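In response to reviewer comment 3 from the previous cycle, which asked for concrete evidence that the modeling workflow produces usable outputs, we include below a single protein chain processed end to end. The sequence was submitted unchanged, and the resulting C-alpha cells are shown without manual editing.
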Amino acid sequence: MTTDVETKVDPRLTSGARINVKWVAVFVILGVLFPFFIDGYTSFQMTLTIIYAIAILGLNLLTGFNGQFSLGHSAFYAIGAYTAAILVYHLDFPVYVTIPIGGVVCFVAGFLFGLPALRLNGLYLALATFALAVAVPQILKSSHLEGLTGGVQGLDIFRPDVPEVLVNTFAMTMDQWWYLISFGIMLLLFWAAWNLINSRSGRAMMAIRDNPIAAQSMGINTSLYKSLTFGVSAFYTGIAGALAAIVIEFVAPDSFTFQLSILLFIGLVVGGTGSIWGAIFGGLFILMVPNIAEEVSTGLSYAVFGVILILVIYVMPSGIVGLVDILKVRLKKKL
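The workflow returned the following C-alpha cells.
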C-alpha cells in the first residue's frame, strides 16, 4: 500500500500525535501485572475487553481512518471464530496457530467484499454490510453446513493446558494465561495500526476519507486502498473472533447476531472515532455497561443502557479520548 504522492494531513488527526512513550511503558507494565492481582472471573472479563478492543480497532481503521461505514463486522468476527473452531474441532490444529489463520481468512473475505462495495458509499454501504451481518448467522445455521459448523448447536473448543513451567513458577491459571496472550496480541496489533496510520499509506487512507476526489486527482489509487483497508479491518476483527472462540471455548451462530455489530459501533463512537487507544475504552464500555444496566433493572435493561449511552454521548461527543484531550488542554492552560 504505497503511493508516490505525499498527502498533507493535520497531525492532530493522527494517533501518533497522542503517543507518549512513558505512558505506554506504564500501561504495558500495569497490563502485564494486572491479572496477578485480580480473581479469575475478572481476568476473564478483562480478556473479553481486550478482544472487543481489537475488533473495535479494526472497525476504526475502516470507518474512523478511511471513512467507510460498516454495520457488518459481526460477520467477520463470526468468520474468524468459526475458522478457529473448525480447525481445532475437525482438523485438530494447535489452538495458537488458528488465531493468525482466522485473521488471514477474514482479510481475504474483507478484501473480496470490499471490491464490489467500491461502488457503494454512505448509507448504501451501510445497508450492504448490514445484509452481510444478517446473512452470516443464517448461513452458519444451514443444514447443508451442519457437519462443518455444528448448525444451531455450534462447536466446542478445549484450550490446551497452561505451560507447566509457568504453572510451577508463577502458579499461573488458565484465565491469567489467556489474558496475557490476548494482551500481547493486542499490543502487537495496536503497534501495527499506529505504524500504518502514521505511514504514507495511512495518510493516503485519511486523504480518501476527507476528500476522495482530491485524493484520486493526486494519484492515490482509491479503489485499491479502500479494498485493502476493508481487508485489514476484517483481519483485526477476525483475530478478535478467533480469540473469543478460544477463550469462551464455544461458538454458535446466535453469538454473532447484528446486535454484536451495533455494540462494536457503539464502542467505536464512545472510545473515539479516529483514535487507536480509544478502542480500549470502547471495549470496556460495551462489556461493562450492559451488565450495569442489567443490574439496575432486568426488565428495562435496554432502556437503562440507552439512557446511559445518551448521557455519555452528550457529555463526550468526541468520545472518551476526545474528552481526555480537552482536559489535557485545559490543564496545560491552568499550569
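Residues 222-248 form the longest helix (27 residues). We consider this sufficient to address the reviewer's concern, and the full set will be provided in the supplementary archive.
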